[in-house]
Design goal:
GMP Synthetase, Chain A, domain 3, alpha/beta, 25 strands, globular, five-stranded parallel beta sheet, 598 residues, 40% helix, Rossmann fold
Length: 598
């Protein structure tokens, strides 16, 4: 299959509507937990209505529209309707505090904001005097009140009736591949967020390149719980749009476990943090039960790993191993499959590195988690592991139409139609990210084998150089420590020092249970953070992991602190640690750790 050259995203939608007019496009749980559905034909009509309503409000080609909401069908309709008439969508994480929200609204030059509910509206009202460019707020749900600045979604759609269809069709046909479709702001682990300008060609090309790299089948359904303000979630939706796959939206992160059982997806995408938490919870539950149950679990896992080895090495399974694995699946792994809806063929892990041991665990259980890589600046997709060539610790070859290479220092670079146009209003940042001949400098370090498979070895900025001159990439070590059942989050330190240390947070599920069993008094997680017994538990688990590391990679000391969250400013909305802020927050403890070391 060749990649189609669409003029714009709306044209790509029109092809899908032509192929699957009555097919389901989006599903979600409505009131009374009944599943509601929008067909592709209905989707096309609603997208056109959003476009016409925006035109009625006076928006012109090139104007910007913000969306600040949890992922839902209306988010996508607002996005597609904005792009269809030549405007650009700018997503804002619904968890962003008012100050960051105001920065993105103003920097993007937005005129309209779509907001999820009254919680988001209250945030916008708080900063109203700081965002003078916003002419109207459109509320997806809730009460807009009597303020003319705010209107409900249904009233907004009603404005579309005043715009003739022919006027909309003419506007939609005038959108070119090189036109701006979206500005996606980086999550800001360091410094001020940068707005990557993505064109219609970026989106339509990348959706197809990703589609051609994965096992997509007629009748597939997918499940989405990632935030649509992040381009990783968006490209999953656009890929599903291209091939006519319905997307089921989770109600919230807190309902994902219940919702996925109802959605019963064939595939879904997630960030590594979710897989880490599932992995840790399964292991902790097995260890807590102990006895025969734990022995059966360990036997099943060992059997699954035998099957994984055969798969990776492309050796046939013996009849005896097939029988053992069938029993292991029935006794242990079937429960994991049922928790995911019992139809999952594969999942994607992206947006950050994941420990290969976690990938091996899921593969042993019969769930293929395919690691991929992408960044905001290349429309969130460049490489992904293929189902017929599983390699743990690698992110696979590029998608069709994408070039890759490494520089003299090992930096990974990409060129292709997935690469952004620029950083919005930041020419100096753009010049540092894009070479004159179109290569995107990623800041990642890696190696490419003879078959074009990529292995990421670290980040240029995150590379730790000890006082002994050892160059150490912290991510692989952090991934290893993340498999400790008593550890929730971890950040490695040691740049310019004699040895490595770590700042860790205790696991909120396993550590309290362990403390109760040991008779350790506590009321909150903060109490456990201060507990000498908990610190000793964590240090002991880390020492076990140190056995698999080189001496210069081993962790000598740890600081145990409360959980890093979005609310306390130490984690991004995409669940990445804000390492600079963590280091700043705990600088006194870090300094003491090295000062008091023998």
């Amino acid at each position: 299959m060749d990649i189609v050259d669409f003029n714009n995203v709306f044209q790509m939608l029109e092809q899908t509507v032509e192929n699957f007019p009555q097919g389901p496009a989006f599903r979600w749980l409505g009131k009374g937990e009944t599943v509601e559905t929008v067909t592709w034909k209905e989707c096309r009509h609603q997208v056109a209505t959003v476009s016409k309503a925006l035109m009625a409000l006076g928006l012109e080609k090139g104007d910007k529209v913000n969306v600040i909401s949890y992922s839902c069908c209306k988010w996508v309709l607002a996005d597609l309707g904005t792009m269809a008439m030549g405007c650009a969508t700018v997503g804002i994480y619904h968890s962003n505090p008012p100050k960051e929200t105001a920065y993105i609204i103003n920097h993007s030059d937005a005129r309209i904001v779509f907001a999820q509910d009254n919680t988001q509206l209250d945030k916008l009202l708080e900063i109203r005097h700081e965002i003078p460019g916003i002419e109207r707020v459109i509320l997806f749900e809730g009460d807009p009140g009597e303020d003319d600045w705010v209107m409900g979604f249904d009233d907004f759609l009603g404005l579309g009736a005043t715009v003739p269809d022919a006027e909309f069709e003419g506007r939609a046909r005038g959108v070119k591949p090189s036109d701006m479709a979206a500005i996606v702001y980086t999550s800001g682990t360091t410094g001020v967020p940068k707005g990557a300008v993505l064109t219609h060609d970026n989106i339509t090309f990348t959706a197809q390149s990703a589609f051609l790299s994965l096992d997509k089948r007629e009748g597939d359904e997918t499940f989405l719980f990632l935030p649509l303000a992040h381009v990783f979630a968006r490209i999953c939706v656009y890929m599903a749009l291209f091939c006519g796959t319905p997307t089921f939206f989770a109600r919230a992160m807190t309902t994902v476990i219940d919702d996925i059982k109802i959605a019963r997806p064939h595939w879904f995408a997630s960030v590594p943090r979710i897989y880490e938490k599932i992995h840790g919870k399964i292991l902790a539950n097995a260890e807590a039960k102990g006895g025969v149950t734990l022995k059966i679990f360990n036997w099943a896992l060992a059997t699954g790993r035998e099957v994984t080895d055969c798969t990776v090495e492309k050796r046939p399974l013996s009849p005896w191993l097939r029988l053992k694995y069938k029993v292991a699946t029935k006794l242990v792994f079937e429960k994991i499959h049922q928790a995911l809806g019992n139809r999952v063929r594969w999942c994607i892990s992206g947006a950050a590195p994941i420990n290969p041991d976690i990938l091996k665990f899921f593969h042993a259980a019969g769930i293929k988690v395919l690691e991929g890589i992408g960044m905001t600046e290349n429309t969130s997709f460049s490489n992904v592991i293929r189902l017929d060539d599983i390699r743990f610790g690698w992110v696979g070859p590029t998608g069709p139409g994408i070039e890759q290479k490494t520089g003299g220092d090992g930096e990974i670079m990409y060129r292709g139609r997935n690469v952004m146009k620029e950083y919005y209003k930041m020419p100096e940042k753009t010049a540092k990210a894009l070479t004159k001949d179109g290569w995107l400098l990623t800041g990642d370090l890696g190696e490419i084998d003879g078959s074009g498979n990529l292995r990421v070895t670290g980040r240029k900025k995150d590379l730790i150089i000890t006082s002994g001159g050892k160059n150490i990439a912290p991510e692989p070590i952090e991934g290893i420590l993340a498999t400790c059942t008593c550890i929730n989050q971890v950040m490695i330190l040691g740049d310019g020092e004699r040895f490595l240390t770590a700042v860790v947070t205790p696991d909120p599920d396993t550590v309290p249970d362990w403390a109760r069993e040991k008779g350790i008094p506590f009321e909150t997680m903060e109490d456990l953070v201060e507990s000498g017994e908990v610190k000793a538990l964590i240090q002991g688990e880390i020492e076990e992991k140190n056995r698999d590391l080189a001496s210069f990679e081993s962790i000598k000391k740890v600081i145990v602190v409360p959980e890093f969250t979005i609310d306390n400013g130490l984690m991004t909305p995409t669940l990445k640690l804000k390492k600079a802020r963590i280091r700043e927050r705990y600088q006194r403890e870090i300094t003491a750790l090295y000062r008091d070391a023998p």
